[in-house]
Amino acid sequence: MIKVSLISLGCAKNLVDSEIMVGHLHQAGMTVVPEAEKADVVIVNTCSFIDSSKEESISHILQVHESRGLKKRRHDQKLIVAGCMSQRFAKDLPHAMPEVDAFIGLDQVTQVAPIIEEIYAKERGRNESPATFIAGRSTYIPDYDTPRFRLTPRHFAYIKIAEGCNHPCTFCIIPQIRGRHRSRTVESVVAEARQLVREGVKEINLISQDTTFFGMDTWEQRPNPRTPVDSSRGTALTTLLRQLNAIEGDFWIRLLYTHPAHWSDELIRTIAECPKVARYIDIPLQHISDHMLGLMQRETSSAYIRDLVKRIRAGIPGIAVRTTFIVGFPGETDADVDELCAFIEETRFERLGVFRYSQEEGTRAAKMEGQIAKKTKEARWHRVMKLQQEIAARVSESAVGRTLKVLVEEPGVARGEADAPDIDGRVYVPITVPVGEFAQVKITGYENYDLLALPAGTEPVTRKVARQAQ
Fold it and tell me: What separation in angstroms does the CA of 41 have from each of 33, 44, 75, 156, 450?
C-alpha cells in the first residue's frame, strides 16, 4: 500500500484543493500519513500569489528533497509538486527543478492517485525530465459529492462556491493561474452545507476568488465593466445565503473574499435578515485614492467605497468589517498614502491587513513605470500598521464588558463572529469551556488584537486590561 504525505501551503482555497486530493487518495486505497519521512510519496501543494509565497513553496520542496537524500531508506521516495506554482510556471519548473518527480496542475487534483500509479509504473531515466500533468488554463470546479477529506478541525469547514476570477486588477496573477470565474449551483453548495452540518460543523466559511460574483458568470457581460453591478445581478448569492440560513442547526455562515464592486443593497439586507450569517465581512479594498484605484483597475472609485462602507454598517448593525490594502504600488505618492491613512483613521475598520506591493511577473503592474523602492514600501507598511494597531486597541477596548457568542477552537482559545479562522484575533477563555462548541462569554479585558473572557455569569477575580497603544 502506497503511503502519501501532503504539505498544503497558501490560502483556504488551496486547502480545499488539498482536501480533494486526500479524498481521492483514500478512495484509491492509498494511506495518507502526516510524517513526510515515512511516506513513499510527498506532495507539496504550492502557492504562487506573491514572491513570499513562491519562496515558501520552493523552500518546502527543497527541504523534502534534501531530507530524502539524507535518509538512505527513502532514496526512492517520490516528490510531486502541485497547485498554483505548478500551474503558473508549467513550462519552466521541470527544467528548473529536476529533483521533482512530477508536476500536476489545478485541474489534476482529482487524478492524483492514477498519476502516482503512473509515476511508479514508469521508472524515470537518469537524464529524464520530471513528468508533467498540467492542462492549459484551469476550468475545474468541485461539486457537493466530490471525494474530499477535511483537514480543518471538526467544528469548521470551507466550501468553495466558485473558482477563477474575471477581474482585471493589474497587480494580480490569479486569473492567469486559476482561469475565468465559474460558479457552482446554489443546489450543489446547499447540499454540501447540509452534509457538513450533519457532521457537526459549527462554522461554514464560503470562499472563492470573489464570492460576491457567485452566479453572475451566467449573465451577459456588463456594457461598462468599470460600473458596479446593480442589485438585480446579485440574486444568486442572496438566494444561497437565505437557503443556507434555513438549514436546521446552530451554526455560523461566514462570507469571505468579497469584492466591493459587486455589493448590493439586497445583499446587505439579506445578511441583516439571516441570523446565521456571521456579522463579519471580508472586503479587500486595496486602496482609497482614486489615483491608485485607477492604476490598479479596481472597478470602483473612492466615493463609491466610502458610501458602500457606510451602507454596510448602517444596514447590518454590529457588523465587523475586515479589509486589506496594498502600499508601495507603482506610482503611489506620499499624498496617496496620506489619503489612505486618513480614510483608515476615519473609518476605523475592525480588522485590517496590509500588503507590501509585490512585483509579479506576468502582471501589467510589473511593467509599469514608477516602481517603488523596497525601503519606501517598508516605511509605508509600518506607518499604516502602526495606525491600525492603535485603532485595533480601541476596538478591543470597546468590547470589554460585552457578552459574546464564541466558538471554542482549542482548550482556552476561541473565536467570535468578528474573527475568521487563522487571520484574525482570538478570545482567550478558561480551558474548561468545551472545544468545538459555542459558548456565551463576557469580555473582561484585552491584549493587543486578542480578547480575554470568562463564561457569562461568572465574575473575574482580577480584571486585566491592556494599556492602550501609545
Answer: 10, 10, 11, 28, 40
Closest CA to 134 of 46, 193, 7: 46
Q: Is the pLDDT of residue 153 over 90?
A: yes
- CA–CA separation, 298 vs 211, rounded Å? 16
Tell me the sheet residues that pair with 276.
Answer: none
Mean pLDDT, the chain, rounded, equals: 91
| Alpha-helix runs per DSSP H in 261-360 | 265-273, 290-296, 302-315, 334-347
Domains of the chain and CATH, by start: 3-133 (3.40.50.12160), 156-397 (3.80.30.20), 403-455 (2.40.50.140)
pLDDT tens digits along 5-20:
999 999 999 999 999 9
* Mean pLDDT to the nearest integer, 212-234: 59
Instruction: Give yes or no for a contact between 336 and 291, defined as CB atoms under 8 angstroms apart.
Output: yes
Residues 130 and 97 sit within 8 Å (Cβ to Cβ): yes
Instruction: Output the pLDDT for position 220.
Output: 43
Which pairing describes strands 162-163 and 182-183: parallel, antiparallel, or unpaired?
antiparallel
Residue with cell 451602507: 311
- In this prediction, what percent of the chain has a pLDDT beyond 70? 92
Ranges of beta strands (E only) in 169-327 are: 182-183, 203-207, 252-255, 277-282, 320-327
- Per-residue cell: 418: 468578528
Whole-angstrom Cα distance, residue 190 to residue 181? 20
pLDDT band for position 76 (cuts 50, 70, 90): confident
**Reported pTM:** 0.91
CA distances from 297 to 98, 226, 227, 322, 356 (A): 38, 8, 12, 21, 18
Q: Please determine, for residue 227, whether its predicted confidence score (pLDDT) is greater than 60.
A: no
pLDDT at 235: 75
Cα distances from 129 to residues 96, 98, 363, in angstroms, run 10, 6, 28
Nearest to 417 by CA among 390, 439, 445: 439
How are beta strands 203-207 and 320-327 bridged, if at all?
unpaired
